Amino acid sequence: MIDPRDRPKVLAAIRNLKMARSAHAFVRGSTERFYQWLESSTRCNLPDGPPIWICGDCHLGNLGPLADTKGRVLVQIRDLDQTVIGNPAHDLVRLGLSLASAARSSDLPGVATARVLKELIAGYQSALEGDFSDQKERDHRPKIIQRLLVRSTQRRWRHLAEERLATVEPKIPLGPRFWKLTPQERKELARIVESDEIRPALASLTGGGKDASVALVDAAYWRKGCSSLGRLRYAALFHMSEGRESRICLIDIKEGVTAAAPRTKGAKMPKDNAERVVMGAKALSPNLGQRLMAAKLFGRSVVIRELMPQDLKIEIESLGIAEALLLSRYLASVVGRAHGRQMDSRDRAAWRTELKTKSTSSMNAPSWLWQSVVELTSLHEAAYLDHCRRYALSEAA
Questions:
Q1: What is the span of the domain harbouring residue 190?
Q2: What does the pLDDT look like over 271-283, one tens digit per residue?
Q3: Which one of 278, 306, 334 terminates a domain?
Q4: Residue 62 DSSP code
Q5: What local confidence, expressed as pLDDT, does residue 382 receive?
Q6: Exposed (0-12), middle (13-18) or buried (19+): which is 87, by Cβ within 10 Å?
């Protein structure tokens, strides 16, 4: 059992191991390094898009099927910790780096990476030319996405419980993923879930009315990925009842932290990090935005998210060239819709023109995207190898 005082040390070790497993995993966990490069680089001449809410950490693992409050599913951006009002080109470079890393991890040749980036920009531009009064997704879905959506729409509560908790019982089992709470943590979580300020909003997230009863059933510290390090992170089960209706719900409570992504100068955003995440989610991922709320826990800002069985992330073991090209075009179109729905028709037209102006040839990826991804890939590869060396030395000590 993990002593709460040992959490930072154990989480750091888990993060270092995870990031040492593959270059692709290292890229996913290196958001701050990405923006450090972006700030210092003067060679790539990125296009300057209209100031809108961007994901800020737009990689493969942060896109996937998301359900709205009624269970309807669309592929959208699923993690908005880094969201800011900024330059949409940053999301394109971040996604391009992730796709290039996935292609390299799949042992695809370098020419495949060039074609992947070409498809990325084509899919993004095509989405900007779409009809934003029509919310239906009309892009051709790669088989990997089709299979994921079928699986998503067939999932029910038991699938979520078995996957997240390894049990369908209303209990969070302590173990490698869920750690023991201190008495103070349990008391504070019960207070926030059952308080008059939070209870009505929680009930509405889960389909109940403002007078529904909400009671904490169980909770634990959640060791989830690398994102638990240095922040509050909890899983909580609560019981919502209203009249004859009742249900058990699982929520993720995660501390909002300062975004590494650069924001547009003068952009008006909430100073509270949790409120910023909620506002960005509503703009970029409406399905997710419906299911988030900001709160305070131990005086720190947290985002509360109802977890739905239909929510899945894109996980790729390996890709063939044809599938990599289709996936790149499709995911870029998802990002294009997320960006484009925030712009009026004039801004979308101006942004398309800017992207075309920055493209030297319709047969290739724009030079700014290609140069950015090549330079970033080189920097991340060197940093990854150095990370692996330091990890191996620490294990041997």
A1: 162-306
A2: 999 999 999 999 9
A3: 306
A4: G
A5: 82
A6: buried
